[in-house]
Amino acid sequence: MKDFEERALDSAPHKPICWFRYVDDTFVIWIQGPDNLKGFLNHLNSINPCIQFTMETESEGHLPFLALISGRPDGSLGHTVYRKPTHTNLYLNAKSHHHPSSKQAALSILVHRARALCDQESLRAELEFLKDIFRRNGYNDRQIHRALNRHPNSNQHDDPRETVAFLPFVGTIFNRISRVLSRHLIIRSVGLPPKKISNVLRPGITWD
């Protein structure tokens, strides 16, 4: 792709004032009008038939690109978390049969994403939005507070000498076994999520 970009930009009659790519997504700032922009897209797609671009332009001052990019009056760019219109805000429910650490991790990941993608102006609103979403998914204030205040680099289990046992998470049975392993053998237990139906049924079988 680096070679493609160099050839495409060097030979383009009209060029963007900036071109940033992450894997197969490209962010471009264009100031030479919509007609020249279409011409630039056609130019890109004419170089290699196996590499074809599609284009999405700014709408109402916003453009999704990994995050949601928005233009500011001073010419700078703001950024916050982007969610597709079809997103349901349904996550791992607090009452689901998963180990508590898995549920807590589901919250912490979303908080970490907010802090990584949001600028200072939008971070507060995103965290408040996440609090509401967590409550709708059944989490209490203690769990939410823990997710919001967890240090992203903290790790209570970083002893290289520690032994870990990966066990199926089956409610109180898992807890009993974990206590025995921890007390007598100094082994930390990690709960594995339950199997999905797709893991049980063989492929190629239809059920009426």
From TrEMBL:
The lineage of its organism: Eukaryota, Metazoa, Ecdysozoa, Arthropoda, Hexapoda. It comes from Cryptotermes secundus. InterPro entries: HTH_animal. Residues 90-148 form the Helix-turn-helix domain. It comes from the Eukaryota. This is Helix-turn-helix domain-containing protein. PANTHER family: GIY-YIG DOMAIN-CONTAINING PROTEIN, REVERSE TRANSCRIPTASE.
